[in-house]
Amino acid sequence: MWGYIGEEVRFSKQLQSQQSFFKQFYGSVTKSDYVTLRLGFIMTHCKTNPKFDFHKYMIRALEDDFKIVVGISWYLWLFVVIFLLLNINGWHTYFWIAFIPVIVTYGFDSCIMGQVRYIVPRLVIG
Asked: Per the record, what is one GO cellular component (predicted)?
């Protein structure tokens, strides 16, 4: 008897999680709430422009946020392409990749201590 109740509870929780997942895509904000928020935003931020397109503003803001969060820079794309081209068996690419941030951050000269700003403190410290 208890096994049947446990299965029913598990099925109910799974159904609730699926319902919550799909609810975020449809009907999460009612039309009256959306209109109220839109009018409040326009009255607060754009009093001089009554023809303000709130939907266009929101789409633009979301696209900008998406570029910041998910965007990938050109040098990272270049790094990925070079890594994929050099990923040859026996080259131990994952080992050498660990040194790239150090070289990019401090430069190759600092790795061999060839710059004056690194030589002087070493001479002073001894």
From this structure: membrane
The amino acid present at 99, given as its one-letter code, is F
DSSP three-state, residue 120:
helix
pLDDT (tens digit, 9 = 90+) per residue, 13-34? 788 888 888 877 776 778 888 8
Helix (H, G, I), strand (E, B) or coil at 71: coil
pTM of the predicted model over 0.70: no
Burial 62-83 (b: 16+ CB within 10 A, else e): eeeeeeeeeeeeeeeeeeeeee
Cα 12 off chain centre by = 33
Which three-class secondary structure state does DSSP give residue 11?
helix
